[in-house]
Specification:
The chain is mainly α and about 180 residues long. The chain is built from 5 helices and 2 strands.
């Protein structure tokens, strides 16, 4: 038989073997390890819960920021669409005004050309005297008092004389036009 050390002898004296003591010691160590592992798990769970709680306001803020960005993007899109529409309206108005301006200028040029042609076709300017008629004026300028001659003067001055060619008044200024080839 092997010699027993003092601890083994003491253990035997208390009724426990070395193997029993070692088993108890191993069981106690295993228990301490399980408790330590459980504490670590509990601490890990608490840390995870704390992280979730800490992250929650950040997530809520991020969601609010995202919603704000989406709303701002919608506003920007609406403003861009409105600006595009206003630009189209402005362009249409600008085009309309340009066309009006060009038409007005063309009409002015046409009126100038007509006035120049009219001025070139005037023989003289005559101020109506008392007791004058269109036939007496035609006789004075054309040498004929026939209807074709005084009607030619009337048609040229209709805007001054009015609708009745028999009513000319002293002081009216009439333009005497060049005779057309058929009356020369």
């Amino acid at each position: 038989m092997a010699k027993k050390n003092i601890f083994q002898r003491l253990a035997e004296s208390f009724g426990k073997s070395t193997a029993d003591l070692e088993r108890e010691k191993a069981a106690e160590l295993a228990k301490e390890q399980r408790e330590a592992i459980q504490k670590m798990r509990d601490a890990e769970a608490k840390a995870e819960a704390a992280v979730k709680e800490a992250v929650k306001p950040v997530q809520e803020a991020a969601e609010k920021v995202e919603a704000g960005v989406k709303a701002a993007a919608r506003e920007v899109d609406a403003a861009a669409e409105e600006a595009k529409q206003k630009a189209a309206e402005f362009e249409a108005e600008s085009k309309r005004r340009t066309e009006e301006y060009l038409a007005k200028k063309a009409a002015e040029e046409e009126a100038k050309a007509a006035a120049a042609a009219r001025a070139a076709s005037i023989v003289a300017t005559h101020t109506v005297q008392a007791n004058e008629t269109l036939s007496s004026i035609a006789l004075q300028y054309y040498g004929h008092a026939l209807p074709a001659y005084y009607k030619h003067i009337y048609e040229f001055n209709k805007d001054v004389i009015g609708d009745n060619m028999n009513l000319i008044r002293p002081g009216q200024t009439l333009q005497i036009p060049v005779l057309p080839d058929e009356l020369k």
